[in-house]
Structure formats: structure tokens, C-alpha cells
Amino acid sequence: MIARQAQATLQRLAKGFPILVITGPRQSGKTTLARLTFPDHRYVSLEDIDEREFARADPRGFLARFVGQGIILDEVQRVPDLLSYLQTDNDLNPVMGRIVLTASQQFGLLAAVTQSLAGRAGMIQLLPLSLSELNHAQFQPSLDEVLSQGLYPALYQRQPLASDWYSSYVATYVERDVRQLLQIRDLAQFTRFLKLCAARTGQLLNISSLANDAGISQTAAKQWLSVLEASYLIFLLQPYHENFGKRLTKTPKLYFYDTGLAAFLLGIQDSEQMNSHSARPALFETLIVSDLLKKRWNAGQTNNLYFWRDHVGLEVDVVMTCKDGIQPIEIKSGQTIASDWFNALNKWQGLSNSKRQAMLIYGGDESYVRQNTRCQGWYQVNLDQC
């Protein structure tokens, strides 16, 4: 069992909220985390047809079975109307941490939680393993192995062949869940759209180009992207808004939450193929940006990640809004640091007058300071409580 850093956050939230909500992609470890943290809670999966029909047909009777008990309701997005009844159930028995909900889609769920459970629910978003969780579990894969295999827990606990696992994952969860939400009839077209998104991870999102290449309208492309976001497959990194007298891009960048899924969609089968693939730099950037996000969410903090890019293409890959200033971060996949890697950081520091030391995360192993920039290897990133 790989220890999850979010467990401490979940335990903290359980002291102040009667209802806990754990969201995240399928197979990220939500159920395992909930059952490990609350071993005495009764577990019910709403993927079970009988339980789901009971909850839909008679929600009060469904919940009456658990009076005075702690309960874990798994995949609660399958019966969203149940949230309103949980509000009444909790108000009658407001014990901290008594009700734990998991969900693998946030499509409409967050609005329902806000409306029905406002002030009653503590929320945490659980993504696949972080690099530090993998390190603490004493797994020491190479960079190319991580990029090609990804970080879903099952790949390290059961160690199936990654291509087999992702083939099943896409067929069982992605195509089923997303097609249900979008009511897509042409599976081949949707699969092509997924692959086109994977080819664009780490790049500025061009809706027009994506829609044209997929053979769909821009309206459909926006809708499909929103559902991929809600299903925790992709996320959009927004540009930093301060212009410092410069004209800046207003277009977000598209990222996959997991490099293994993106690599599978790109047809990358193993670490050897990854090592020479043209998408490797973009996948490395995807790995680091998603890992920075995991650190925030595992600690129960909000997303504070942006990127900065001016009108001539000068870009800082990540800028983090910290309490003591802005943290600029450059991400490079190479193992040997080149002097021109510091150009964008130096430009940013001159424009922003940031008091925080710039950071360079690269594909090597050593950590040291160079050109007043903290250089850190990909497997040992330390953000100093930012």
C-alpha cells in the first residue's frame, strides 16, 4: 500500500466538517484513501446497480440504514439528487467526519455540493501519485519510465503492463463515462479528439485548430474539453494577468493530469520509445506542472499555478502566487543545464522585481544554485512552503 499525503489533510478536515468529499479521476485511489482513513465506516458503492436504484427510488429509506453510523458513499455522482437528502440526514446527526463521499466527475457535482452542502462539506481533490509519494514508497523508476508509465497507483501496486492497463482504462472509464455525458455516437471521432488533445499537452490551446483537426465544430470542441476537465483527464493552466507593461497572451495551456495516459494516446509504448520521442519535452513539462498541482491539492490548498508569456513568445513555464511573492519556475527535460535556459527567468525577474529566488526544474539528478537560480532535479522538488 502506497501512503498518500492527502490522508493527513482528510483527517484534518474530518475534525471540522461532518461531510467529506473526495473527487478525482477514476483509479486515482479515492476509495482506498477513504476506507484506509475511516476503517470503521460502512462502505457502499453506488456503482452497484441495486444500491444505486435503491438510492434513486427511495433516498430516505436508503439513508435510514445508516443512522448513527459512519458511511462512505462511493461514486456519488451516479446519484446526484442524493446530496439534498444528505443535507437533511446530516442536520439530524451532525457528527464530524461521519459521511464520506467520493466522486470521479465534477460535472455538476461542485454546484450541487455548494447548493446542498454549503458549510457542511470539506473537499479534497485526489490525483494519481505524486513524485514524492512514489519516492517515499521507495520506487525509483527512471524519468522515461515515469513519463511513459504514468503515476496511477495500480501501475505500481499490481505492476501490469502499462499499455494493457491504459487500454482497459480508456475503454472502461474514459469512453464509457465521457460518452455518457456527451452522448457521443461516433466513438472513432471522439478517440481521435482525445489523441489530438494528447498531442497538444503542454501547448497553448487553439480551439479552432483542434476542432478543425478533429472534424467537429468549435462549440463541440469546447463542450468536449469541458467534460474532459470535469472527468479529471485534462486541465487548463491560465496565463498570469500582470503585464508589467507588456502585451501578454490570454490563451490557456492544455495539460493532461497524467503523462502515462497521454503517452498511451500518442502510441508511446515504453521508456525506450519515450527517450527519443518528439513529445518528450512536452510530457516532462506536463509531469512537473501536474506534480506541482498535486502538492497543493494533497495539502488541501487551492490551485495557485499560472504561466507567463509575452507577445514575442518569451515564456516562464510556471509562476506560483505565494504569500511572500511570486515564484517563477522554468521546466526543461534535458539532463545537462544550458545557459540559455535562464533567459526567460532573468527577463521575468527584471520585469517583476520578484523577491523569491527563481527555480529551474530539469531532467537531471543534482540540485545547486546557478545564475542566482535554484536548480533542482526532477525527483527532488522542494517548494519551501509556497
Q: State the CATH class of the largest domain.
A: Mainly Alpha
Please report the distance between the alpha carbons of the first and last residues.
Answer: 29 Å
As residue ranges, the low-confidence spans are none
Largest sheet: 6 strands, mixed
Which secondary-structure class do the elements indicate? alpha/beta
The count of strands amounts to 14
Which shape, going by the Cα principal axes?
A: globular
Q: Can you name the CATH architecture of the largest domain?
A: Orthogonal Bundle
Rg result = 22 Å
Q: What share of the residues does DSSP label as strand, in percent?
A: 15-25%
Query: How many separate structural domains?
Result: 3
Number of helices: 17
Give the CATH topology of the largest domain.
Arc Repressor Mutant, subunit A
Mean of all residue-level pLDDT scores:
91
Strand order of the largest sheet: 9-10-11-12-14-13
In which range does the helix fraction lie?
A: 40-55%
